[in-house]
Amino acid sequence: MAALTAEEAAVYDRQLRVWGVEAQQRMRSSHVLVLGCRGAAIEVTKNLVLAGIGLLHLVDDATLEDTTLPGNFLVPASPDVIGSSVAEQCAKGLKEMNPLVDVAHVVADPRTHIRSVALHALKAYSAVLAFDMPAQVIREIDLKCASLNVPFCACTSRGVSGWIFVNPQRHEFIVENSTEDEKTGEIKKKVEKKSVTGVAFDRVVEEMASAASAAASGAASAAATPGPGAPRRRRRRSAVFDVIIRCLARELRTGRAVSAADMEALVDEAGGPVVADAADAAD
């Protein structure tokens, strides 16, 4: 890897003291594809650019509106930008934050753009990030990235609630542990090479939905068996989280986004009005 320039060493001085030159060089060689410039994407892309990656590629076909402008700190708070491309304005804001990073953008629907990207082009990315995408599109991107061993991350935010899915594919890393000999005081270092393999998006949703169903059944059983003989109470689960998982599972089954018309079925599946309240909170 090429050595850092004097300008890069000056700009990244503080983080170089944390993770070192080699890590910064690897960061500089990273190319990241971002599908969707909304929600958590604003904060994530800002952090990537300030960290000093090599290329950030934004894809979105949305335009800026009065209602979306206040939540996007990458775009100047000016009426002049209303109606302009979100991807273009975000790219400008990110480039101003760190001119050393190459920030590109494409004005296109990210859901269809990813289907048109050739496999060899997708393979060139170090990671693919998708924000606020439908569940069936996330599954499609995950499968495509898995075939190329490209790490994939999906994130969706809904008000104060949200979720994140990370599939590192096949990732190898080094773990270094130090132990002190009780008799001699000698410090011994042990270096191990380990690996982690990601799990497909639809499998994760399926397993989490099954866990939510089991938790609902357990809660119903406990309510029906009061007194000393009642099953031991399990750790409290978030009703909002269970609703999110059930919505994702339903999207994958039906191939369409969950709407208010699905509320009754979701409440029946999840076990009661408490979940309906959680669904309102997650809307």
Poorly predicted ranges: 274-278
- Mean pLDDT score: 84
- Tell me about the biggest sheet? 6 strands, mixed
Counted by DSSP, the helix tally is: 11
Residues in β-strands, percent: 15-25%
Strand order of the largest sheet: 3-2-1-4-5-6
Give the N-to-C terminal Cα separation. Answer: 47 Å
| Helical/strand content category | alpha/beta
The radius of gyration is 23 Å
> In percent, how helical is the residue content?
40-55%
Question: If you had to describe this structure to a student in words, what would you say it looks like?
Answer:
The structure is a single chain. With 283 residues, the protein is an alpha/beta fold. The protein contains 11 helices and 8 strands. α9 crosses α11 (273-282). The longest helix has 24 residues, at 201-224.
Task: Offer a concise description of the structure.
The protein is an alpha/beta fold and 283 residues long.
What's the layout of helices and strands?
Layout (H helix, E strand, L loop, with lengths): L5 H6 L1 H16 L2 E5 L5 H11 L3 E5 L26 H12 L4 E5 L3 H7 L2 H5 L3 E5 L3 H14 L3 E7 L2 E7 L2 E11 L6 E11 L3 H24 L14 H16 L8 H8 L2 H10 L1
Parallel strand pairs: 1-2, 1-4, 2-3, 4-5
Antiparallel strand pairs: 5-6, 7-8
Helix pairs in contact: 3-4, 8-9, 9-11, 10-11
Features:
283 residues, alpha/beta, 6-stranded mixed β-sheet, 11 helices
